[in-house]
Write a structure and sequence with these properties.
By secondary structure, the chain is α/β, with parallel strands linked by helices. Helices cover 23% and strands 26% of the residues. The chain has helices spanning 49-55, 105-108, 156-159, 165-175, 194-205, 220-225, 236-242, 287-290, 303-316, 330-338, 354-358; strands spanning 9-16, 23-30, 37-47, 72-79, 91-94, 97-99, 119-120, 139-143, 147-149, 186-190, 209-214, 229-232, 246-251, 266-274, 294-297, 322-325, 349-353. Strands 3, 4, 5, 8, 9, 16 and 17 form a seven-stranded mixed β-sheet that branches. A six-stranded parallel β-sheet has the order 12-11-10-13-14-15, sandwiched between helices. Helix 1 packs across helix 10, helix 4 (165-175) crosses helix 5 and helix 4 packs across helix 9 (303-316). It is globular and about 65 Å long. Bound molecules: NADP nicotinamide-adenine-dinucleotide phosphate (NAP) and zinc ion (2 copies).
């Protein structure tokens, strides 16, 4: 169905009003479908640790009311008259961005995430001055440039986390040569949470040897089942044995930490990629010079790269481990993540069943 100028529509959502981060049921309006827009019925919404940070204003840039959620999976319900890439009924995803200027050198270089005018999926001021609202809701309208086709091999429940957790680790693995050829390369992953599990799976699929660095050995079984070895930071002997062995280390730790423990793990001229977002400054030791280290940062990925990541996951059968929860448990799940825990088995992603629970009938937040 090609539509333009249909009326704005109301949808159900989970909304926080302040930095307590506590969400309650609310209604928001989605814009009508413009010529380049794709209207999406949201089926599942992944819960990223960035949602925790932003709900609690950890980055000191939060605006309220806030409807979090930038791991979105759903089905196209309508497309604008100029949309070419999507049709009604198609399975699609939306990640962390919904717009950028599309004209600057950064956008032309396919790095929309670094555009000065990027509009994030939520907690961003849109051109209209209104706040963007995210995926903890039952519908969204997004310019087709920021919509990603989901291959059949990626099932509904597991697609959403690829749109943030997946691309966030895929992009630096791509940039630092692991995706092109991981054979003979050693990848480290600090923190085995939502991002960490995807980092292990993608790096392994690219042929790399992977070691997880973690707060304890409680995730040993999980790491080993993914084909990685595991070292606890507190295990001095194992840390000493791992020193100087890692080519590329993805730091997904979701809390403030110095890099003292991590830098010694790198080979000379090895690369540490900061992914976990903490706004406090960290110290850089002189060893970064004497051992020629690269200290990099990385933010999600551009749209072309996000499509590559989705296709890579589909082709290699890389699916995030997810625990599907009802919308009523969303505040509980945020508290679990904030406390440094995750889904029941200690890693993976909480994913909200939007159509089955957020929209369905009478219910209360737990
Ligand atoms: P997550 O599922 O909560 O996992 C984070 C992992 O960090 C935990 O599983 C834990 O691993 C470790 N951790 C948690 N608290 C810790 C603490 N106090 N000290 C040391 N380690 C701790 O979070 P996520 O969704 O993967 O996100 C991870 C971070 O990346 C967050 O800061 C998030 O905002 C950020 N992020 C960045 C981007 C980007 O584009 N750069 C995109 C998405 C998310 P162990 O139990 O194994 O130690
Ligand atoms: Zn995220
Ligand atoms: Zn731009």
């Amino acid at each position: 169905m090609r539509v333009v100028n249909q009326p704005d529509s109301t949808c159900e959502c989970l909304m926080a009003m302040d930095a307590s981060g506590v969400m309650a049921r609310a209604k928001i309006t989605r814009r009508s479908c413009g010529p380049k827009d794709v209207a999406i019925k949201i089926l599942f919404a992944g819960m990223c640790h960035s949602d925790v940070h932003q709900l609690h204003n950890d980055w000191m840039g939060s605006s309220y009311p806030m409807v979090p959620g930038h791991e979105i999976f759903g089905v196209v319900t309508a497309v604008g008259s100029d949309v070419t890439a999507f049709t009604e009924g198609q399975r699609v995803g939306v990640g962390c961005m919904v717009d950028s200027c599309r004209a600057c050198a950064t956008c032309r270089n396919k790095k929309e995430q670094y555009c000065g005018k990027v509009i994030f999926t939520y907690n961003s001021a849109m051109e209209s001055g209104e706040l963007s609202f995210g995926g903890y809701s039952d519908a969204v309208v997004v310019d087709e440039h920021f919509v990603v086709a989901v291959p059949d091999s990626v099932t509904d429940e597991v697609a959403a986390p690829i749109l943030c957790a997946g691309i966030t680790v895929f992009s630096p693995l791509h940039r630092f040569g692991i995706i092109a050829n991981g054979q003979g390369k050693r990848v480290g992953v600090a923190g085995l949470g939502g991002l960490g599990q995807m980092a292990v799976k993608i790096a392994k699929a690219a042929g790399a040897e992977v070691t997880v660095f973690s707060r304890s050995y409680s995730k040993r079984e999980k790491a080993e089942s993914l084909g990685a070895s595991i070292v606890a930071y507190s295990d001095a002997d194992a840390m000493a044995a791992a020193a100087g062995t890692v080519d590329v280390l993805l730091d997904t730790i979701a809390a403030f930490h110095e890099l003292d423990n991590l830098c010694p793990l790198l080979v000379p001229e090895g690369t540490l990629v900061r992914l976990g977002v903490d706004v406090h400054d960290v110290k850089l030791q002189v060893s970064t010079i004497f051992r020629g280290l690269n200290i990099a940062g990385s933010l999600i990925g551009g749209m072309e790269e996000t499509r590559e990541c989705m296709d890579f996951c589909g082709q290699h059968g890389i699916f995030p481990d997810c625990e599907v929860i009802p919308a009523s448990k969303a505040n509980w799940a945020i508290d679990e993540l904030a406390a440094g825990r995750g889904p029941a088995d200690g890693e993976g992603r909480f994913v909200i069943d939007v159509q089955g629970t957020l929209v369905a009938g009478d219910w209360q937040m737990e």
